Amino acid sequence: MQGNRPDVYITTPLYYVNSYPHIGHTFTTVVADVVKRHYQQLGKKVYFLTGTDEHGEKIAIAANNAGKDPKSFVDENSKRFKSVWDDMGISYDDFIRTTEERHKKVVRGLLQELYEKGDIYFASYEGNYCLGCERFITESELVDGKCPDHGTEPKKVKEENYFFKMSKYADQLKKEFESKKDIIRPEWYRKEVLGYLNEKIDDLCISRPMDRVSWGIELPFDNRFVTYVWFDALLNYISAIGYPDPSYRGYWDVCEHFIAKDILRTHTVYWGTMLLASGIPIYKHLNVHGYWNMSGIKMSKSLGNVVEPSSFKEKYGDEGLRFFFLREMRWGEDADFTIERFVLRYNSDLANNYGNLISRTMGMVEKYYSDKDYLDIKSELPKEHVLKDQLEKLVNSYKADFSSCEFNKAMENMWRLFDDTNKFIADSKPWDLAKTGNKGELDKVIMPVLEVIRICTYMLLPVMPKVSSAILLELGSDNIEKTTFDEFCRWGSQDRIKAKYVNKKFFNRIEENTGGA
Ligand code: MSP
Q: What pLDDT, on the 0 to 100 scale, is given for residue 203?
């Protein structure tokens, strides 16, 4: 790992292995993957970490219900996450499991350090425990006496445990979040966090007695207890990059977390104070998205309203889903997931608009330039063109939108350009120009359109890697790896474009009656 410092270090949450990946988990992981690929296009070195959260009461209960011992249960379920990520084309660099020794070692080491420093003490505690969240929740968080995320009544728990002096670091943390205005994206979640920190922050119960929960990392200073799962899992972000070896900082200093709002409190109040207590600077960015809902209710295994990506992939392919994710959700806000909505979006944006633009353009090229294998686009492309101006604007706004996680805006703008390009074809009537043999005028229509397709398809590579590569291959763009983003996206940067195609149709309309979601 040393000597290989990335420019960006991207993480997803570590998903609980009590269930299988659904659309919600898949979304965060796909976004992280798209961001990684986009930054790579920009010439940045990116390191991408994901993995599974495997300890704690919830997992122990799920293993027991499945009639399995926790270890074989987590081994099996962790593999499922890996295999779905492989199916979805996720290019993670490391997949960490909290049951791995490399992780446990770091958790024990840090606990010992904080214990010796006096930041961990022993006491008795009584509180409302939500098993779904795996944390004590405060009275003010309850809605009608229930956890708002899981719809269940928390259990009253009273026991002796070890506590981390979270309260000691609350003011310092508040100052961090007050001064770093763009640390949390979107901004309104930073305000929410400042709201948490304006309330009284209690110390954090960080152990569970062995006789109640034995599936966890034993406390290094008291073997009657295991570590509370959140205190264990959050540390993955540094255990995976070699902490406490000083080389971890090369990664940590450029860390971008991606999470949903369900774990905002744990990633700010818990994680922030843990970092401050350990003398580690706070992460660079926390990117927070909203929920995928089904009929207005958060998709979640515990509520039983989930769509699994594997069944989805079999039916509709994985890349349409990747596109849908980015196009449909406004970063930070909730969105509704229905199959009807997916099909509508797929048919209108991919099959009709973009797909049709490609196939009709390739069809015209084959027909009107049938004597050629290649078009000499470099010399035939007009130096000035209305589509050139629009394309240049898009390239710039696309980069800005990606860096602020406004993916839906980036997609919307690109599709507006496809609309305009389709309209430009309709208005310029290349079929009439071909009929009258007006070669010069025909070039002025076809070449700019091809350029829009070439450049936009390149920009879509991170979103739909397989289909975009296939389209670029047809166009003869064999310089993808060698050029930089700005060079590839420069008007006229490719000398020639293929004029004969093996495949012209990349998105087939989904015709089925989708019925209920
Ligand atoms: N294990 C903890 C995280 C520890 S991180 C150190 C956990 N796991 S989880 O399996 O419940 O995953 C929560 C995350 O999954 C969310 O933050 C989000 O990334 C993703 N999602 C799960 N359901 C979701 C939706 N319905 N909608 C959007 N994302 C969702 O919390």
A: 95
412/478 same-domain check: yes
Given this model, what pLDDT does residue 304 score? 79
Against a cut of 0.85, is the pTM above it? yes
The residue out of 272, 289, 306 marking a domain boundary is 289
> Residue 517: its pLDDT value, please?
40
Domain hosting residue 410, numbered range: 339-498
Pairing of strands 222-227, 218-219: antiparallel
Across the range 349-375, mean pLDDT stands at 97
Helix (H) or strand (E) holding 71: helix 70-87
The C-alpha atoms of residue 310 and residue 250 are separated, in whole angstroms, by 36
| Shared domain check, 111 and 256 | yes
What mean pLDDT value characterizes the chain?
Answer: 94
Beta bridge partners of 209: 225
Read off the CATH number of the domain in which 117 is found: 3.40.50.620
- From the CB of 271, is ligand 1 less than 6 Å away? no
In a domain, 152, yes or no: yes
Q: Looking at the domain assignment, is residue 517 inside a domain?
A: no
Distance 178 CA to ligand 1 centre (A): 26
Contact 13 CB / ligand 1 (< 6 Å):
yes
- Partners of residue 105 on adjacent β-strands: none
| Tally of structural domains, the chain | 2
pLDDT number for residue 513: 63
Query: DSSP assignment, residue 217?
Result: P
- Taking the C-alpha atoms of residue 10 and residue 6, their distance in angstroms, rounded to an integer, is 10
Please provide the DSSP assignment of 148-167 as one string.
Answer: TTT-SPPEEEEEEEEEE-HH
Same domain, 34 and 147: yes
The answer to whether residues 248 and 380 belong to one domain is no
Q: How far is the CA of 157 from the centre of ligand 1 (A)?
A: 24
